[in-house]
Write a structure and sequence with these properties.
It contains 4 helices and 6 strands. α1 (about 15-30) packs parallel to α2 (about 80-95). With about 160 residues, the chain is of the alpha+beta class. Helices cover about 35% and strands about 15% of the residues. Belongs to the PC-esterase family. TBL subfamily.
Length: about 160
Amino acid sequence: YFQEGEEIKMEMSVETAFSKSIESLSKWVAQEVNLSRTHLIFRAYAPVHFRGGEWNTGGGCHLESFPDEAAAGGSGGEGYREYRIVVEGLWEHLEKGSVELLNVTGMTAVRKDGHSSLYYLGPEIGLAPVHRQDCSHWCLPGVPDSWNELLYAVVIKRWLS
């Protein structure tokens, strides 16, 4: 479910909610941020990799041990709808150069093997039940380190120019 103001929206799709949040962000940036003095970077969507269900219906990723090379380079892969929503919602700012997009969608779609899956509880507690896997957050070190390297490159490039 999603909440909009005081109203709970039980039937709102994730795509619609995400689109509304990007629209709200875009309006806030236009009204509240001095873009002549602020370098705004938005990280694009990082896909989840549940197989055989979703987070609440028994989906899992614990058997994934290799990157998904089939997801590399395609524009129709996992996370593309969300990426398109971000670009469309922030287009006015992106076009002016006042917001920079850190596009991690494609590179992250490939890493179906980078989630904590059954191992998120830590060594003291042990493995999580198979039906309670985490296939949306990322292991460290790993995928987020690549995002940090990209962010560092964007900041240094801007600083040097």
